[in-house]
Amino acid sequence: MIPHKTKKDMKGKHLIAAILLVFNHHLQAQVTKTFTIQADHLTAKIAPTMWGVFFEDINLGADGGIYAELVKNRSFEFAQPLMGWQKLGDNIPEGSLAILNRSQEKPNNPRFLQVDSNDPQNKIGLQNEGFRGMGIKRGLRYDFSVWYRQLKPGLRLHLELVDSAGNTIGEGFLEPEAIGNQWQRAQTSFHATQTCPKAKLNVWFEGQGKIDLDMLSLFPEDTWKRRPGGLRADMVQRLADMKPGFIRFPGGCIVEGRELASRFQWKKTVGPVEDRQLIINRWNTEFQHRPAPDYYQSFGLGFFEYFQLAEDIGAEPLPILNCGMACQFNSAEQAPLDELNTYVQDVLDLIEFANGDIHTQWGKLRAQMGHPAPFHLKMLGVGNENWGPQYIERLELFKKVIDAQHPDIKIVASSGTDPDGERFDFLNRKLRELQVGFIDEHYYRSPEWFLSHANRYDNYDRMGPKVFAGEYAGHPPQVTDGPLENNWGAAIAEAAFLTGLERNADVVQMASYAPLFAHIDGWQWAPDLIWVDNLRTYGTPSYYVQQLYATNKGTAVVPMLADGQAVSGQEGLYASSTIDQPNGELLIKVVNYNHKPVRGMFKLETGKKPTKEADQILLTATDLKAVNSFDDPEHIHPQTTKIAVKDKTIVADLQPYSFYLFKVKLK
């Protein structure tokens, strides 16, 4: 006989039963997947260069970005000589602030400012707006320098940093000493009293006299490694934290130029900074919806600085040089084959600059710039996103000379702009016939493309040229706000694709996301790996995906199978595994691209004994549209916990739309 129950008791009973029913249904619905990792079976070595970074001066990446100069148009060489500058003063006499041109005397830096003041009571000056303002930090020292020629003594420079409201937040003075027609360099320093993300610099000319000025410059003291005139430390640190195997520079499409005249010429970017010839940046007018008329290349960040940066962060340098072809989407200009010697010689001279003895012409220049030791260049690119038979016939000429004189240098060659189609097929075939060192493949595609192509390299030729996945990024459809394009949906698709690159490390030996940096107030292209403003940086979800791969690459690939097959999209799962032999560590990467959790059973087939616990690193978000931001820079970031290892097995409930890394120590 059933005891009497109240209605309240019955409702409670039914509620508990309903909860148990839902719970049991959830357990039955959750998929269990078994993965077998053959940890003692090494299938391919992983190149130290496997995961790297690609730098291009786009999105204010160099000037206004990683190059820490705060003054825009410091030498008055923009098309409009005073762009970025504004005259100061209530009554500026005609001719007291004039731009002069000495093109015959100094063709690389012809313009300078002449200040002629005859009234000591009349205050005149110039204000520089910086690159979308100047990021100024309270208490930090700022170093001002200028080249001058004092024709009539009596003027001093009064320097002011002012905030958005015009309040002075730092000031200093510079009194030129030398008199005569010889150019001199002078400098002074002062400290900021407040922090301001969009400050400006006032340069007042006080007194009575006449002076010529050029290269008015302002740097913070806290540059990378405290190098005067150096790089922005927080941006370099983002790169160093990735431990990249290589850094490709200087691009990208700026290597080609819109036409040959505006191509990147490395020889114009080395030597004294004041002698480097500024040119317009090709991204200045490339995108009509994101115009940047003040975007130029000062080349304060030149090839010496690129090599030095690579050395600083422990990355192999990978310079890319023009092959005698301008951008084929723009002018498609080509240097005639019988005039290609200049371009080929640029390559030979660059190798000498990087590796040559200090008694050679270009090795001597490297030493004079402060680096007597060679940079140990091992590879270089000939052309960027060039295509067609005209590219192949030019590449053949370069290869013949490089192979003859520097057979140890590996050539990176372009496979065009797309990862498939007639153009790609032609280049892929020809480059394999030429036996180049690396074929540079690019893919800017939708997240769905990356998910469906994780097995792209499973059946590639293992004996031919290696693949350089030189530029890739997931581009979410129907997203037009730059920072919002770097969402979790794109990043997790990239993570899935990278399992295929890692699994095929005998084919793919270099890979880099692109572009690298974007300034929030000056970007032209999105998505991008790292976003910056004048004072801050943050890594996107894609940044953390790249970082997890780069800092956990291992030394060799080991098979990871499910149902006897590589895990490459079956049931929304993607996986790869490697082993770090020197550290005795097994590295398992797995992506669950499902809206439901998956129970993963990871069985380790190894003669070694794993520790009882492993590190579990999780990267996830509940919303595929989730992003990081300046206000919430670690909304999506790696989270590390411990997970049990029992009987050489890890059991983990893989959350929906998540990327996992398991690090297992093997004794």
From TrEMBL:
Instruction: Specify whether Translocase is a keyword of the entry.
Output: no
The reactions it catalyses are: Hydrolysis of terminal non-reducing alpha-L-arabinofuranoside residues in alpha-L-arabinosides
Keywords in UniProt for this one?
Answer: Glycoprotein, Hydrolase, Signal
Question: Which top-level group of life is the source organism from?
Answer: Bacteria
Q: A Pfam family in this protein?
A: ASD1_dom
User: Any idea of its EC number?
Assistant: 3.2.1.55
Annotated Alpha-L-arabinofuranosidase C-terminal domain ranges read 470-658
Q: Which InterPro entries match?
A: Alpha-L-AF_C (IPR010720), ASD1_cat (IPR055235), GH (IPR017853), Glyco_hydro_b (IPR013780), Glycosyl_Hydrolase_51 (IPR051563)
Q: State the family named in the UniProt similarity comment for this chain.
A: Belongs to the glycosyl hydrolase 51 family.
Query: What is this protein's record name?
Result: non-reducing end alpha-L-arabinofuranosidase
Q: Which organism is it from?
A: Olivibacter ginsenosidimutans
**Lineage, broadest ranks:** Bacteria, Pseudomonadati, Bacteroidota, Sphingobacteriia, Sphingobacteriales
